[in-house]
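FAQ: What does the model actually see?

It sees only this:
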Amino acid sequence: MKFKFLIFIIFIFSCSPHSQTFVSKKPYSAKGFAYVYNDYDFQNRIILGKLNNDKSQISHQNLKTGTLIKIINPKNNKSIILKNIKRIKYPDFYKILITKPIMDELQLSADLPILEILEIKKNKLFVAEKAKIYNEEKKISSKAPVTSVKISNISKDKKKKKINNPNKIFIHIASFYSVDTANFLKQRIVKEVSDFDINKLKIKQISNKETLVISGPYNSVNLLKNDYIKLKTFGFEELDIYTNE
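And it is asked to produce this:
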């Protein structure tokens, strides 16, 4: 989630309602864990809605029903586009609820099902691409543009490529223009978020116009989840999760 200084000040002193609808001119995008649907969790009310796990279906609890969503596996760039079939409540740690056929098609890791999601606006550019969307449960291959998803730079020189370590996971807390503002947020978290491991908080300067506040690395999803929940309770609306920062 990206901040500018003014909206940051508003953000620090306010919390948004837990269940909300994202309404923005800019397409919604996020990176994090998928929740893979199963009937046991539905029957035990961990998720408050039912999907058909034999079909390719998705649910995003904050995007409108019928919204087109592109789902990308950042490890292999496989992607699909589906309609948000319904708004089902699921644990807030996860970015989207998907069925097993989607996990299989994108070849998501069962241990770390990290993905990127992007809301696709029904505009002329999308129509021009002639991307075929899922009709009922018909599988498709999408060529819709992904212009606002943040993708790490990958060198064409194979010798310079980083070796992926799927056990290292980071939380992207916020982005700022100013290093001073990033440090200000870091100090607020240190002072006001109880039992947070301050050694995991880091300032990462990308350029002279972008500085990140991140937390990590985490070698355990449970440890990451605990800190994620603490940060959400502190007031953050959206937190992205990355691997191998």
